[in-house]
Amino acid sequence: MRPNSQLSGILHVLLHMAEHDGPVTSEALASMIQTNPVVIRRIMAGLRDGGHVRSEKGHGGGWTLARDLATVTLRDVYDSLGRPSLFAIGNRTENPDCLVEQAVNAALDTSLQAAETLLLSRLGAITLAALSADFHDRLERRKRPRKGDVCHDG
Fold it and tell me: pTM for this one?
């Protein structure tokens, strides 16, 4: 099963938007993550509903950030995406009367719930400002490699 990279992709887009002065078109954002502008518009509509971005119509229009990066967490973005499933692991439900299936499902449910709680907590602790700072640190290291740094283009 292919992993869902929607959260990663939209975080990528939001950080690019933070580097732009002015609105960015859906077409430009789509090209950043190799997707269709329609997909971007659909995703950005959820972020607009969450108050994270604004859209401007017409010539010179596009998407802009509506909030300071320090006030938006990865959890906020995840929630605005509709809270997609975090894990591909699931329970068998073919024979709900089977005691073995019940025991396995109970263990998996408990473990998955604990993992989800931990992951959501961590996403809530990371802001877009922290991601932006990490990006800028990496950019600075690429500009001035130090002994031991390995830099790759692309």
Answer: 0.82
- Which pair of structure tokens corresponds to residue 27? 């077409």
DSSP states of 1-46? -----HHHHHHHHHHHHHHSSS-B-HHHHHHHTT--HHHHHHHHHH
pLDDT in tens, 5-49: 899 999 999 999 999 999 999 999 999 999 999 999 999 999 999
Residue 24: give its domain's CATH number. 1.10.10.10
Number of separate domains in the chain: 1
> Which residues does residue 64 pair with via DSSP β-bridges, in sequence order?
54
- Report how far residue 29's alpha carbon sits from residue 8's, in angstroms, rounded to the nearest whole number: 14
- The amino acid occupying position 22 is G
Estimate the share of the chain in helix, then strand, then coil, as percent rounded to the nearest 5.
55, 5, 35
